[in-house]
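=== RUN LOG ===
request id: a7f3
mode: sequence -> structure
chains: 1
length: 453
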Amino acid sequence: MYEEGGQYSVWIRQPSASNTSAVCSHAVDENPRNAFLPVQEVTPTCAPDHEDPKPKQTRLRSLDTFRGFSLTVMVFVNYGGGGYWFFEHAPWNGLTVADLVMPWFVFIIGTSVVLAFRSMRRKGVSRVQLLRKLTWRTVVLLLLGFCFLNYSPKDGPLSWSWLRVPGVLQRLGFTYCVLSLMQMAWGQRPVPARASRCWSAVQDLTPYWPEWVFIVLLETLWLCLTFLLPVPNCPAGYLGAGGIGDYGQHPNCTGGAAGYIDRWMFGDNMYRWPTCRELYRTTQPFDPEGILGTINSVVMGFMGMQAGKIILCYRGNNLQMLSRFLAWAVVLGASAAVLSKCTRDGGFIPVNKNLWSLSYVACMGCFSFLLLGAMYVVIDLKGWWGGRPFIYPGMNSILVYVGHSLLGFYFPFSWEIRYQDSHWERLFQGLWGTSLWVLVAFLLYRKKFFLKI
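=== RESULT ===
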């Protein structure tokens, strides 16, 4: 009856001879104020899990564009990249354009998990429903990767003795599962309605300290296994390619602990054509989507989750949001520079996509924050660009990725190259096949068909 800030008058009539009970009446002199107004004002930017259940939906077009850009480059690379070396994966240490796209995709998964879970929680989706959804998505990604994308007709008759177990979609599925469980367990924490200046500076960090503890422990595990695990006939902490590398001193040590763990776990069910095989003449199998690398894939996805938290907490303050994006880019870029000593082979931990080394993840995190921030300014903030044509494959990423992987060796997406020594035909074929998939995504966008799992 009585609410905060209101002013009331109350009259109590004493009992009389005819009426032995007291009579109480009241009047409102001044209406109460809305005590929850500060919460309602702060909630949209700092506590998204407690917003009004039916707000106006705004899709972050820059995120779809970033996803589509990454996927388009990935398709072009997988279609040969015009035969140029910088569109091929680095043989071992180092960085090329081809090495950029998968970490970007993992980063986007992390950001999407935060934004999607926030949206579903606002719609009243229960934790059980969230768990079912993430389990379904994980299983579908694992099955798609294992049953459809790990085998090509050009590999010859299928044999379970050599069928590859790890893979790109398997890694993405596992990473998505871990990130989603983290978000369910620790990512739905409320933020105080009235935030002091000091609290405002860390409101995207401190409420989620259990996630940070988990990630630090995970990275500590990677460091301990990488540098302390005894590998037979190999020096501790070896990060080289083996073969004739390092003057042929460690020919059977390809990948160090990472390769050893994968060979022990999977045997011959690994990738048979690692990028180091031709240059370093290696004889040991090595899988770039192995177990240790998947640990750092989760770390990469966590950086994307941090970007998502920044977007939710500071979207009403673009300067704050972009400043934090830039700060993360500087910290991660500096970390990568220190770990690699700005060299290809001479650093403490070289930048290496095959190993998904810590310096590689830090470097890719730097690029991801810069790219997402730049696209946010150009697309969502200023409206200078609508994200076309990359936004189309970005909104149908599963269909484009699986489709280009299954049909990439068939006409009209590719054909037999007649002029092997020329880049022209290779470049045209790569651009043609990639453009066809962008066109397919555009037509599906027009039909409002989006393949979701």
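=== NOTES ===
Residues 37-446 form one domain.
Confidence is low (pLDDT under 50) at residues 35-57.
=== END ===
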